């Protein structure tokens, strides 16, 4: 790896950390250069402005999330692995939360990302539908006509906006807690469609996720 | 995989599903509790994690009926921490990890190093046997091999 690529990677890592911590709007390229201890000119050599940095960050997020979301479409997961899967999707989104929190404003400045982000959201829906079909085939859940597609759509929306919603509504709590709550809120959405044992399922979820409040 | 195509009753599927969620909840809160006690020394925490892993397995086994026993072993294998499970899943999804290596990865590396050291020692030993005349000299210049003199050994262990 040349020194050039190294600096480029460091700029991206620092920008991501700053955007997530302070909010993208609060951070300028001069701030990023200052934190890195490089000159703004050096940063400009690698990225011609903040939008170029955001686009590069988006590209790597896009690659990773596509890979994660495609997994249950290509091959069914083991039943007991679904919660880990949901957890990992939330982790990915949490790592890129600055974008989700300011998507409207960022997409206005980076119009080329708009169709790519839209494709990611559609992929989320396709993944949710694949998982629901899998659980349906196992006899765990059942749907009336049209219900599955609507639920897949709601799950995609939930995956997209949960972290931002949680940050807007709650001041305390770690990021791990926010992800944990997101997994709970995902699993509970399936409860009304269970073919049997709905009370036991809801009870287990409440019990499982209440434990978090004991831990610091 | 055969277990995906094999017929499974909805009841069995439900048990696996519930056991998975139960194991997740426990593993998650255990991971958080032990995180808050990191100051106590890592070996102690490791022992606790292993013990808790076994506990989790027992609780899950109690929760599901006899048919679920095999399931529980798969869902919460003893000693598998929350982070380990997440990491393994990430690997299965083809994600590259940039974080610090896990304990199991470290011990795998350690085992590999030990094997390499063994091979190296063996190699050096055969070389020494080939050139018996030069054996003394090479032993003196390689303090880390088996041929370390007793005096040097004492000095090395005193330094530790």
Topology:
The complex is a heterodimer of chains A (216) and B (160).
Chain A: H1 3-22, H2 29-36, H3 40-46, H4 50-74, H5 82-95, H6 97-101, H7 103-109, H8 113-137, H9 147-169, H10 175-188, H11 198-210
Helix pairs in contact in A: 1-2, 2-3, 4-5, 4-8, 5-10, 8-9, 9-10, 10-11
Chain B: H1 2-5, H2 10-35, H3 42-63, H4 69-75, H5 82-92, H6 103-130, H7 135-141, H8 150-159
Structure in a nutshell:
The complex is a heterodimer of chains A (about 220) and B (about 160). Chain A is an all-alpha fold and about 220 residues long. Chain A has helices spanning about 5-20, 30-35, 40-45, 50-75, 80-95, 95-100, 105-110, 115-135, 145-170, 175-190, 200-210.
Give a description of the structure.
The complex is a heterodimer of chains A (216) and B (160). Chain A is built from eleven helices and no strands. Chain A has 216 residues and is mainly alpha-helical. Chain A has helices at 3-22, 29-36, 40-46, 50-74, 82-95, 97-101, 103-109, 113-137, 147-169, 175-188, 198-210. The mean pLDDT of chain A is 91. Helix content of chain B is 72%, strand content 0%. Chain B has helices spanning 2-5, 10-35, 42-63, 69-75, 82-92, 103-130, 135-141, 150-159. Chain B is elongated and about 70 Å long. Chain B starts with a helix and ends with a helix. Classes of the chains: A mainly alpha (216), B mainly alpha (160). At the A-B interface, helix 4, helix 5, helix 10 and helix 11 of A face helix 2, helix 4 and helix 5 of B.
């Amino acid at each position: 790896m040349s020194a050039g690529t190294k600096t480029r990677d460091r700029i991206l890592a620092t920008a991501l950390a700053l955007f997530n911590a302070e909010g993208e709007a609060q951070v300028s390229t001069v701030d990023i250069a200052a934190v890195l201890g490089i000159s703004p000119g050096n940063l400009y050599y690698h990225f011609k402005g903040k939008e170029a940095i955001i686009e590069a960050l988006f590209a790597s997020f896009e690659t990773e999330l596509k890979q994660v979301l495609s997994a249950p479409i290509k091959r069914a997961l083991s039943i007991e692995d679904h919660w880990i899967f949901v957890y990992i999707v939330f982790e990915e989104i949490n790592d890129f939360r600055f974008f989700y929190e300011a998507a409207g404003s960022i997409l206005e400045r980076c119009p080329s990302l708009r169709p790519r982000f839209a494709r990611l959201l559609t992929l989320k829906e396709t993944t949710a539908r694949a998982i629901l079909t899998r659980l349906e085939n196992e006899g765990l859940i059942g749907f009336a006509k049209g219900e599955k597609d609507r639920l897949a759509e709601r799950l995609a929306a939930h995956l997209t906006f949960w972290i931002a919603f949680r940050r807007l509504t709650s001041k305390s709590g770690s990021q791990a807690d926010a992800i944990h709550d997101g997994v709970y809120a995902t699993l509970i959405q399936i409860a009304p469609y269970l073919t049997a044992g709905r009370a036991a399922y809801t009870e287990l979820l409440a019990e499982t996720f209440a434990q978090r409040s004991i831990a610091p | 995989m055969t277990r995906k195509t094999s017929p499974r009753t909805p009841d069995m599927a439900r048990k696996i599903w519930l056991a998975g969620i139960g194991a997740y909840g426990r593993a998650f809160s255990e991971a958080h509790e032990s995180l808050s006690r990191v100051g106590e020394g890592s070996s102690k925490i490791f022992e606790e994690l292993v013990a808790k892993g076994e506990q989790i397995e027992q609780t899950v086994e109690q929760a599901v009926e006899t048919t679920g026993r095999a399931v529980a072993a798969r869902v919460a294998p003893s000693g598998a921490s929350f982070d380990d499970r997440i990491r393994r899943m990430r690997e299965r999804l083809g994600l590259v990890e940039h974080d610090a290596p896990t304990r199991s990865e470290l011990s795998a590396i350690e085992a590999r190093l030990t094997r390499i050291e063994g091979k190296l020692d063996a190699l050096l030993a055969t070389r020494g046997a080939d050139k018996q005349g030069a054996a003394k000299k090479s032993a003196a210049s390689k303090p880390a091999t088996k041929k370390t003199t007793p005096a040097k050994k004492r000095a090395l262990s005193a330094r530790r």
